[in-house]
């Protein structure tokens, strides 16, 4: 359960010059492991290049090993919907560099599909667990409590994107502290990605990223999410029903 900001990434096979951070990447996750990960190219505006949602599975034998399952939704598979989405498994550790440790950086190593090459490659990512009420996403601090209000909403009846039939939709929003991210997909095999998706990243009522044809029409407002009071509550936006599947006051 956190708001995590990526500090850097390195693809050792295809990026020999070392780490960098070409994107604005934030993951908002819940105590039960639901997450929404939105990775945007930097520029005058932030444009999502890859966005996905699923759940975290902690290895029962080694808590430093976490699988980030993307089967619920992964934008890389909108035009080629399949049940065979490769597992994204990372092993977390403290950095060797003392300065990075002091800055709250955690290192994740694993393998996943490189969105640039389309090939499954080893990667090294560096993450900072941010204060969920901080606009600038500074490190939460070594002794700070990670507890914050959390609401997770889900749209559609399918359990994962490969089970969504044409004309139906799927969506998830994770709100933690002041931050929330959401993804939405209405399957239409005749349209391009941007015409079938909605992506949002927001801090309180400030919308920072708004992408796709559905971004402005399907997501509940900050006020509506803030007024949620219980698990099982339903929010209606247009013809989309959002069910509260996790609630931490």
From TrEMBL:
Span of the signal peptide: none
InterPro entries registered for this protein in UniProt: Hri1 (IPR031818), Hri1_N_sf (IPR043047)
Taxonomy, superkingdom: Eukaryota
Segments of this protein annotated with the region Disordered: 1-24
Compositionally biased residues, Polar residues: 14-24
Ranges of Basic residues composition bias in the record: 1-10
Record field: transmembrane: none
Protein name, entry field: Protein HRI1
Organism: Pichia inconspicua
């Amino acid at each position: 359960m956190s708001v995590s900001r990526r500090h850097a990434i390195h693809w050792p096979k295809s990026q020999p010059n070392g780490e960098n951070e070409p994107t604005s990447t934030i993951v908002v996750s819940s105590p039960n492991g639901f997450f929404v990960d939105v990775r945007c190219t930097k520029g005058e505006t932030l444009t999502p290049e890859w966005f996905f949602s699923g759940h975290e599975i902690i290895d029962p034998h080694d808590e430093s090993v976490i699988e980030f399952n993307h089967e619920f939704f992964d934008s890389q598979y909108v035009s080629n919907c399949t049940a065979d989405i490769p597992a994204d498994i990372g092993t977390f550790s403290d950095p060797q560099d003392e300065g990075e440790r002091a800055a709250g950086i955690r290192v994740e190593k694993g393998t996943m599909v490189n969105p640039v090459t389309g090939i499954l490659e080893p990667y090294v990512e560096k993450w900072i667990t941010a204060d969920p009420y901080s606009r600038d996403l500074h490190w939460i601090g070594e002794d700070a409590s990670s507890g914050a209000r959390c609401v997770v909403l889900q749209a559609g009846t399918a359990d994962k994107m490969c089970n969504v039939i044409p004309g139906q939709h799927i969506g998830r929003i994770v709100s933690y502290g002041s931050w929330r991210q959401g993804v939405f997909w209405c399957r239409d095999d005749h349209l391009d990605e941007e015409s079938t998706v909605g992506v949002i990243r927001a801090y309180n009522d400030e919308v920072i990223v708004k992408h796709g044809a559905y971004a402005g029409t399907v997501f509940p407002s900050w006020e509506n999410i803030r007024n949620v009071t219980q698990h099982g509550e339903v929010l209606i936006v247009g013809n989309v029903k959002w069910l509260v599947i996790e609630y931490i006051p």
